[in-house]
Design brief:
Layout (H helix, E strand, L loop, with lengths): L1 H14 L8 E9 L3 E5 L6 E4 L5 H4 L7 E9 L5 E4 L1 H18 L3 E9 L2 E5 L4 E5 L18 E8 L8 E3 H19 L5 E10 L2 E5 L4 E5 L20 E10 L4 E5 L11 H4 L5 E10 L2 E7 L2 E6 L21 E10 L4 E5 L7 H8 L5 E9 L3 E5 L5 E5 L21 E10 L4 E5 L11 H5 L5 E10 L2 E6 L3 E6 L10 H4 L5 E10 L4 E5 L8 H8 L1
Parallel strand pairs: 3-5, 13-15, 18-20, 23-25, 28-30
Antiparallel strand pairs: 1-2, 1-4, 2-3, 4-5, 6-7, 6-9, 7-8, 9-10, 11-12, 11-14, 12-13, 14-15, 16-17, 16-19, 17-18, 19-20, 21-22, 21-24, 22-23, 24-25, 26-27, 26-29, 27-28, 29-30
């Protein structure tokens, strides 16, 4: 019997491999219990691993039949096998750190959180520390922006217990930048198209990381058209393709272009926009002197303020168009050397004087607004936008009007009669008095005769005599030699508004003048008045 037991033990020892504590082995999961994972490592008894040693991700892998690597911690005298996953993890990380430091290679970490002085990083289950000064090549504007990210780092320091692991993201970035820089410089030739990442945006342009070396894309090289600010076109972090305009190997200064990826549109402008062609475009800018219209990217035309309407007094460009409007215009002038196109929109409408010639004729009544008043008359603006002259002599049949402002005011809406029309020379004259019959032709000859004594109202006193209104109808002049009393100055006796009697001594119907005298009146005895006054 004893002989059989010894033979059995010998057989078992020959079939079960020798295992040693402190080694890493491969095992197969037999079962997963709430607090323990049972693993077969090929020994006479199974091993046990506390469930708490597994991370949440690793627990997803814990299924019967799956193989895992384990660390043999201990074999008790009764044959109980204690295994560990945590020790496997730490040994692998320790070996990884040794290799990374020896071979100067990076390791990948997850930046867990920001702490005092730097960041706590996860190296796959073991925590390390990254100083804040080693987070980036330049100080980060927002130190929290890298939290939660995966990053490659260089190992600066560690101990075998993995209680003091220090890493640097900055050192990795510097080395990587130098490596990329060498590769990038090989491709930096004038005219070459390269790709890069927008690194920074300033008022005068965009800095683009080409891979270890930055290039400047000036705002003037972004578009053939106008660019208010580079941020209107690019955003930080955007990948773009650019053209190398210039590269200086000594200073490593790179000048880039973006608009150069397509031909200069002005090279074909002469074919696209010949003088006389009607074109379409978008209003992109307004100034006091006109509006700029984008015909295509990089090609803009100017509608001068004088080219909006035929009126000689155009309004501000904002009265006709707004930024963003799409409009049609006519090409008036093209200068490809100066990169200028002059446009007009009034040319798409009939000339006002052509409309006037079609709509009006002499003798016709028209309505307009008094645009301006001068000493000799008033300019009346008609609906077509043209001005007609209303001369001061055509304001009244019977009154002597010294200045048009006595009858008209600026902005007043009036009706008048066309007296003369000359569209070819852009002239028109109007009359206000012609709206009523001429009293000098019928009413005045019938009502007044030579020798008639008439009641008058003093209008004004001049060196020629006294101008009066005769019976509220027509003006006349009492000659200075015909004023009574003759021994006193008229202004000493009479004032504006006084009523006097006078006799008609001149009636000139052709020249529309009436002369008066205050002498030898039957109804008034000036000699008697003079005697009483004396």
């Amino acid at each position: 019997m004893e002989m059989q037991e010894k033979q059995l033990e010998k057989l078992i020892s020959e079939t079960i491999p020798e295992i040693e504590e402190g080694t890493i082995l491969k095992g197969k999961i037999i079962s997963v219990m709430p607090d323990t994972v049972v693993v077969d490592i090929g020994y006479k008894s199974e091993g046990f691993i506390p469930i708490d040693e597994f991370s949440e991700d690793e627990k997803e892998f814990l299924k019967e039949g799956n193989e895992i690597e384990v660390f043999l911690s201990r074999i008790d005298s009764d044959g109980t096998v204690s295994l560990s996953i945590e020790r496997v993890r730490r040994i692998k990380i320790l070996n990884m750190l040794k290799d990374a430091q020896a071979q100067n290679t990076p390791v990948e970490v997850t930046i867990k959180e920001r702490i005092k002085g730097g960041y706590r990083v996860d190296l796959g289950g073991v925590l390390g520390f990254m100083p804040g000064s080693h987070a980036d090549i330049k100080p980060l504007k927002n130190p929290d922006e890298i939290v939660g990210q995966k990053a490659k780092v260089k190992v600066l320091k560690f101990n075998n217990k993995l209680t003091n692991i220090i890493v640097s993201r900055k050192d990795y970035l510097i080395e990587e930048r130098e490596r990329l820089k060498k590769e990038t410089i090989k491709n930096l030739k004038e005219g070459a198209r390269v790709r890069g990442i927008v690194k920074n945006i300033v008022d005068y342009g965009v800095f683009i990381d080409l891979g270890g070396i930055d290039g400047l894309l000036h705002v003037s090289d972004i578009s053939w058209g106008r660019v208010r600010h580079p941020s209107d076109v690019f955003r930080i972090g955007q990948e773009v393709e650019v053209v190398v305009l210039k590269f200086d190997p000594e200073t490593e200064k790179v000048t880039l272009g973006y608009k150069q990826k397509r031909p200069d549109p002005w090279l074909s402008a002469e074919d696209k926009y010949p003088v006389g062609r009607i074109v379409s475009g978008k209003v992109v800018s307004l100034t006091d002197y006109g509006a700029f219209v984008e015909l295509e990217e990089g090609v803009e035309g100017l509608i001068h303020i004088s080219e909006f309407e035929w009126s000689p007094r155009p309004k501000h460009p904002s009265h006709y168009v707004e930024i963003g409007d799409y409009i049609d215009a006519k090409v008036l002038h093209l200068d490809t050397r100066q990169r200028r196109i002059s446009l007009g929109i009034k040319q798409l409408k009939p000339k006002p004087w052509e409309l006037v010639a079609q709509r009006y004729k002499v003798g016709q009544k028209v309505t307009g607004r008094v645009r301006s008043i001068t000493d000799f008359g008033a300019f009346v603006e008609l609906p077509e936008g043209v001005d007609a002259l209303l001369h001061v002599s055509d304001l009244s049949w019977t009154k002597h009007i010294r200045h048009p402002s006595e009858v008209l005011r600026k902005g007043q809406k009036i009706e008048a009669v066309i007296l003369n029309l000359d569209p070819a020379n852009e002239r028109m004259s109007l009359g206000l008095k012609q709206l009523t019959p001429n009293p000098w032709e019928e009413e005045i000859p019938k009502r007044f005769h030579l020798g008639d004594e008439v009641k008058c109202r003093v209008l004004r006193i001049t060196e020629y005599g006294i101008f009066v209104e005769i019976e509220d109808l027509v003006e006349g002049l009492i000659y200075s030699s015909e004023i009574e009393p003759s021994n006193r100055r008229p202004e000493e006796v009479y004032k504006e508004g006084d009523e006097v009697m006078a006799r008609i001594i001149k009636l000139d119907l052709e020249n529309q003048k009436i002369g008066l005298s205050m002498k030898n009146l039957k109804s008034v005895d000036y000699s008697l008045d003079n005697k009483q006054e004396s």
